Amino acid sequence: MQKITLANGHALDLVGTGTNTFGKINHEYTQGLSNDLSDMAYAIQAGYRLFDTAVSYRTEPIVGQGLANSALARDQFFITTKFPGRDDDPKDRQNEARIRQIIDQSFANLQTDRIDLYLLHHPWKNHEDILRVWRVLESYVNAGRINSLGVSNYDQELLEFLMAHARIQPVLNQIESHPGRWNDDLIVFTQAKGLVAQAWGPLTNVAETSREALSEIGQKYGKSWAQVALKYNVQRQVAVIPKSHQLCHQEANLDIFDFTLSAEDLAHIQKL
Ligand SMILES: NC(=O)c1ccc[n+]([C@@H]2O[C@H](COP(=O)([O-])OP(=O)(O)OC[C@H]3O[C@@H](n4cnc5c(N)ncnc54)[C@H](OP(=O)(O)O)[C@@H]3O)[C@@H](O)[C@H]2O)c1
Fold first, then answer.
1. Residue 27 CA: which ligand 1 atom is closest?
2. CA 8, 11, 15, 19 torsion: positive or negative?
3. Mean pLDDT confidence for 73-82
4. CA of 243 to the centre of ligand 1 (A)
5. Residue 159 CA, ligand 1 centroid: distance in Å
6. What is the pLDDT of residue 33?
7. At 120, phi and psi to the nearest 5?
8. Taking the chain, what is the end-to-end CA distance rounded to the nearest angstrom?
9. Mean pLDDT over residues 78-87, rounded?
């Protein structure tokens, strides 16, 4: 697995797995947990070592149990989770005790005493809220319990605000990026600030015409539309976290390191 080095020196796999519907009834996001661990077992079997979860997904216990059931030692895998709460739902970030309770629950759910990367899941207009949660997360880094901090869905303005006030800098911005919505400006800005950009939903909402164009490009390399879409991001050092409930797709999404898209292909894909 190719890795990218975060600004704090820790390494991050360029391809990890999303988990937001793992172990859920009918694999539907809004459903409850079925506690079926086969998605995790397949992902581990396929070779994934980076697992992206979040408090809001309610899949931390699935990821934690799936990893506990595996033969993997703690230093062989990487867990990302995220602090919850939309802009209009501030209840979980009003005081330090509640913030600590939420973070501590992630450790319990994930059955670990160390989390590799903890992100703020959503941007909040209230800057005090951001810094209140960030300061608590920084204390976990200082205590050696979280390795790296980052954000998700942060735009240029909010990223600059946080970087100006953080004592421990964010090292990653997780951003929606896929054909039809590459989000190139934000990705370029994120990288220029020294953060790693990581693409969420890298295979979602892809128009049929885009799939056909990607398939055509993929034929030259013996790769599928999905592999070409992932490679477009990975080739420009954007990490990806595709998710699949099928072992064959999970394996295919890791098998993208034996070809290089041409400059002409990149220019074509960028316009999709
Ligand atoms: N930070 C955020 O705000 C945020 C928001 C959304 C998601 N995320 C994270 O990003 C992860 C990925 O996003 P996502 O789960 O929304 O969707 P995704 O990974 O972009 O796409 C998943 C879909 O693609 C299909 N697929 C996967 N591999 C394929 C392949 N090789 N060929 C054809 N189809 C393939 C899957 O179907 P099959 O199961 O049939 O393969 C599934 O329907 C999430 O799980 C979550 O961890 C973060």
1. 39
2. negative
3. 98
4. 4
5. 25
6. 94
7. -80, 120
8. 27
9. 96
Q: Is 3 helix (H, G, I), strand (E, B) or coil?
A: strand
* Band (195; pLDDT cuts 50, 70, 90): very high
d(C-alpha 216, C-alpha 208), whole Å: 12
Tell me, yes or no, if the pTM score tops 0.85.
yes
User: Per residue in 203-246, pLDDT tens?
Assistant: 999 999 999 999 999 999 999 999 999 999 999 999 999 999 99
Atom of ligand 1 nearest to the CA of 19: 45
Strands 239-240 and 196-200: parallel
Question: Which residues contact residue 268 at a Cβ distance below 8 angstroms, ignoring those fewer than 6 apart?
Answer: 213, 217
CA 93 to chain centre: 22
Contacts of 229 by beta carbon, 8 Å cutoff, 6+ apart: 178, 179, 202, 203, 206, 214, 269
Query: What strands lie across the sheet with 50-52, from one edge to the other?
Result: 17-18, 50-52, 78-83, 115-120, 146-152, 172-176, 196-200, 239-240
User: Is 57 part of the annotated catalytic residue set?
Assistant: yes
Average pLDDT, the chain: 97
Q: What is the CATH number of domain 3-206+237-258?
A: 3.20.20.100
Dist. CA 126–CA 120, nearest whole Å:
13
Instruction: Measure the CA–CA gap between 15 and 172, rounded to whole angstroms.
Output: 14
CA 21 to ligand 1 center in whole angstroms: 9
Max CA separation in the chain (angstroms): 56
How does residue 42 score in pLDDT terms, banded at 50, 70 and 90? very high
- How far from 47 is each of 14, 120, 180, CA to CA, in Å? 13, 27, 29
For β-strands 11-13 and 3-5, DSSP reports them as antiparallel
Using one digit for the tens of pLDDT, what is the confidence trace for 125-138?
Answer: 999 999 999 999 99
In terms of DSSP bridges, do strands 196-200 and 11-13 run parallel, antiparallel, or are they unpaired?
A: unpaired
